């Protein structure tokens, strides 16, 4: 044990070496003065800083002092750990005070005395008990909260482009932090370097890689072909067409993003509906709802899953085994619901409202694969990516790395116009995510997320069942009102806290609950998901308006059906 | 009434049923040529976080053309001898006026706007001004057809 203690000590010294060097530089003059009385071994103090929710506190400034003399200073690391190497040569103090300060927290002190001090003097090493910092509400807290809520409102009301709203939020936070703090310290929120830490680059690169792959796939005409094949396979039976289109859209959404899927499926679906003489909404609504539901069956299916997977350390395999069966169950429920709700709208097709041969030919012409060679290559690369998503977890291969490798391979193989391909990457979305991370980081920094987490924690206690129900249904209902991407990004630290504090939640079940709620909740209202908005936008231009109330009437019961079925699955599985 | 050209501006789809029926009836009664007009307005795409704009745009153009072809097909089946369509991109009001002048239409048939601000190309209170503009610029008359709820 003693041997391990020494080893630990040596390791701690090695770990602290950069600080030793830094202290040497900073206190060069002091060293000269104390050269003759230098101690042979410098005492080492280590410990952890936590917040009230027992989460590690990063960047807390820790000072050890005795009798108004600063003995050592350090900054806490990501795990909340700090190490103080006492280099100042002072007479034996009667007590040493550890003072901890950090923005947005109340300062805290811990006093080392009596037996602890004796222990330190004998062993030159002391492990200090965890120091818990209480939150401190500053004007910066209210500003960050107000800015975040304002950003959500602008996105929800469509008053500003998503990216511009998030960019505005991030800019305001920086403006207040940099320009306001010199006037009044309480306005501080965080600095640029701190903000960068909140950006999840795994998410950014995964989305970017997938965008390049999608850019190749979407130009092949596979969506139009799939929709046309659904029409052919259905043989004019509208109910069967609905079922096939829902399955096709669902599968596409599981691997590609929902918005792209619906952007490409909607125009061709409208053409098919008009050809059959049925109300286009009877096909479009089930399609978009299936897209929202089935999208979460894989890690890459929705941006929310990418966020959840990256934050919660949930891989491609985990989603497939833990969520996909539940999603399939929900899809069956959704299909039955759609057939029931649209039973009257689907009837005219069976009575044979046809169009001319010329139009049918035109429909067929537009429903063919335009770039079969590219589709074949994209298929091979896509299959390889899925294999790497599944097996790569064994060698800790991040999904973002797989996505970038896959995109690069595809670009090298098909050699497209690289300018065109880079343009196909939706940089606006990537900027949206980066600035969103900063805005969410700001409310996390000032403590809003901690207050929400502890509020939910108090509500559900240690009851996992209650926590699951609260997370699923709260996120489902809230996702009908606010955009699910910022909502999910804001909820992740809350779920992280709950997962660490509720017995049984270490299985990450609450992350799956968040995935289900935030995605399937998108079916509850028109503004619940971006895919709904683009579908409505296209449908309206073809003379089939999807109003807010129409979507609510058809979509909200679908939310109840699908979320209930997914909840049942999660309870059975976990 | 002597009439040689009717311009019917619609989006197509179920919401345009009454307007299209009126235009077809009018063309049958007068023997005038009927032109269906569809304007592509893809501005809404700017409010979505999306990538494949060029592909989607092509799809929207095809959707517009297909919708108009269905109307042409419908008119022909009902016996309208001279019928065609125009699909334009850009500012709808401007394109509509230009199409009216180009086709030398005497009558423009439009769906009457509802009170809903989101469902109409033209706002309810804009119609009077637009009718005056049509009269002045193109010398044609505007007919507004109330749509039945879908």
Q: What would you say this structure looks like, in words?
A:
The complex is a heterodimer of chains A (574) and B (150). In chain A, 66% of the residues lie in helices and 8% in strands. Chain A is α/β, with parallel strands linked by helices. In chain A, strands 1, 4, 7 and 8 form a four-stranded mixed β-sheet that branches. A four-stranded antiparallel β-sheet of chain A has the order 3-2-5-6. Chain B is α/β, with parallel strands linked by helices and 150 residues long. In chain B, 42% of the residues are buried.
Protein traits:
heterodimer; A: 574 residues; alpha/beta; Immunoglobulin-like; four-stranded mixed beta sheet; four-stranded antiparallel beta sheet; 26 helices; B: 150 residues; 5 strands; 41% helix
Short description:
With 574 residues, chain A is an alpha/beta fold. Chain A has two domains: 2-133, Immunoglobulins (Immunoglobulin-like), CATH 2.60.40.10; 201-573, no CATH class.
Question: Quick one: overall form of chain A?
Answer: elongated
Helix-residue proportion of chain B: 40-55%
**What's the order of the H and E elements of chain B?**
EHEHEHEHE
Structural class of chain B: alpha/beta
Please state the average pLDDT score of chain A: 85
The coarse overall form of chain B would be globular
| Unreliable stretches covering 5 or more consecutive residues of chain A | 1-13, 15-39
Estimate the strand proportion of chain B.
15-25%
Low-confidence parts of chain B: none
Briefly, what CATH class of chain B?
Answer: Alpha Beta
Write down the oligomeric state. Answer: heterodimer
Count the strands of chain B? 5
Could you give the topology of this structure?
The complex is a heterodimer of chains A (574) and B (150).
Chain A: H1 2-26, H2 28-34, E1 44-51, E2 61-66, E3 69-75, E4 81-85, E5 95-101, E6 108-113, H3 114-123, E7 125-127, E8 131-133, H4 139-157, H5 162-180, H6 192-197, H7 201-218, H8 222-234, H9 238-255, H10 258-276, H11 281-294, H12 303-312, H13 316-322, H14 324-341, H15 347-350, H16 357-366, H17 372-391, H18 399-414, H19 418-424, H20 427-446, H21 448-460, H22 464-479, H23 484-501, H24 509-520, H25 530-541, H26 548-573
Chain B: E1 5-9, H1 17-30, E2 33-40, H2 53-77, E3 83-89, H3 92-103, E4 107-111, H4 127-137, E5 141-145
Parallel strand pairs in B: 1-2, 1-4, 2-3, 4-5
């Amino acid at each position: 044990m003693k041997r391990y203690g020494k080893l630990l000590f040596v390791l701690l010294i090695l770990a602290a070496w950069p600080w030793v060097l830094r202290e040497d530089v900073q206190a060069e003059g002091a060293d000269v003065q104390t050269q003759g009385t230098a101690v042979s071994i410098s005492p080492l103090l280590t410990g952890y800083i936590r917040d009230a929710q027992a989460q590690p506190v990063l960047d807390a400034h820790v000072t050890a002092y005795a009798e108004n003399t600063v003995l050592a200073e350090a900054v806490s690391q990501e795990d909340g750990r700090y190490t103080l190497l006492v280099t100042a040569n002072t007479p034996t103090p009667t007590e040493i005070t550890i003072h901890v300060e950090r923005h947005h927290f109340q300062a805290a002190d811990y006093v080392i005395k009596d037996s602890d001090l004796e222990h330190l003097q004998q062993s030159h090493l002391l492990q200090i008990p965890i120091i818990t910092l209480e939150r401190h509400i500053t004007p910066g807290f209210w500003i960050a909260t107000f800015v975040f809520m304002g950003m959500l409102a602008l996105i929800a009301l469509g008053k500003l482009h998503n990216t511009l709203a998030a960019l505005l939020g991030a800019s305001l936070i920086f403006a207040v932090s940099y320009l306001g703090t010199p006037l009044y310290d309480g306005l501080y929120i965080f600095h640029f370097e701190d903000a960068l830490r909140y950006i999840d680059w795994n998410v950014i690169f995964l989305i970017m890689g997938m965008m390049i792959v999608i850019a190749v796939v979407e130009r092949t005409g596979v969506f139009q072909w799939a929709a046309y094949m659904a029409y052919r396979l259905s043989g004019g039976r509208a109910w069967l067409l609905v079922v096939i289109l829902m399955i096709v859209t669902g599968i596409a959404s599981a691997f590609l993003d929902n918005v792209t899927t619906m952007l490409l499926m909607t125009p061709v679906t409208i053409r098919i509906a008009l050809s059959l003489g049925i109300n286009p909404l009877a096909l479009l609504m089930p399609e978009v709802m299936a897209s929202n539901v089935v999208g979460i069956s894989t890690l890459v299916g929705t941006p929310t899953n990418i966020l959840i997977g990256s934050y919660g350390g949930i891989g491609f395999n985990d989603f497939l085994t833990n969520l996909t069966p539940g999603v399939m169950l929900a899809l069956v429920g959704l299909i039955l619901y759609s057939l029931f709700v649209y039973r009257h709208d689907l009837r005219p097709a069976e009575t044979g409202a046809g169009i001319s041969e010329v139009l049918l030919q035109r429909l067929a012409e537009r429903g063919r694969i335009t770039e079969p060679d590219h589709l074949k290559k994209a298929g091979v690369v896509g299959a390889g990516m899925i294999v790497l998503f599944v097996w790569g977890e064994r060698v800790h291969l991040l999904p973002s790395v797989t996505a970038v490798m896959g995109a690069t391979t595809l670009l090298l193989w098909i050699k497209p116009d690289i300018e065109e391909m880079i343009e196909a990457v939706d940089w606006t979305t990537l900027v949206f995510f980066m600035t969103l991370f900063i805005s969410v980081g700001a409310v996390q920094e000032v403590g809003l997320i901690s207050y929400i987490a502890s509020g939910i924690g108090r509500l559900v206690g240690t009851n996992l069942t209650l926590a699951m129900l609260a997370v699923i249904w709260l996120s489902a209902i809230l996702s009908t009102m606010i955009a699910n991407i910022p909502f999910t990004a804001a909820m992740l630290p809350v779920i992280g806290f709950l997962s660490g504090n509720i017995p049984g939640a270490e299985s990450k079940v609450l992350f799956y609950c968040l995935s289900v709620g935030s995605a399937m909740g998108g079916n509850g209202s028109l503004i619940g998901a971006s895919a709904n908005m683009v579908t409505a936008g296209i449908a309206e231009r073809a003379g089939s308006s999807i109003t807010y109330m129409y979507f609510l009437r058809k979509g909200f019961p679908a939310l109840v059906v699908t979320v209930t079925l997914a909840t049942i699955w999660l309870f059975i599985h976990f | 009434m002597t009439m040689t050209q009717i311009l019917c501006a619609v989006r197509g789809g179920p919401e345009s049923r009454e307007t299209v029926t009126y235009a077809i009836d009018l063309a049958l009664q007068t023997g005038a040529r009927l032109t269906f007009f569809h304007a592509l307005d893809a501005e809404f795409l700017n409010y979505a976080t999306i990538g494949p704009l060029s592909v989607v745009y092509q799809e929207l153009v095809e959707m517009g053309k297909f919708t108009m072809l269905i109307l042409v097909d419908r008119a022909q089946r009902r016996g309208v001898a001279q019928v065609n369509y125009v699909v334009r991109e850009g500012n709808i009001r401007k394109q509509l006026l230009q199409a009216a002048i180009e086709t030398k239409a005497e009558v423009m048939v439009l769906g009457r706007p509802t009170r809903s601000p989101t469902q109409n190309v033209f706002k309810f209170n804009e119609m009077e001004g637009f009718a005056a503009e049509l009269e002045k610029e193109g010398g044609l008359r505007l007919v507004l057809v109330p749509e039945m709820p879908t």
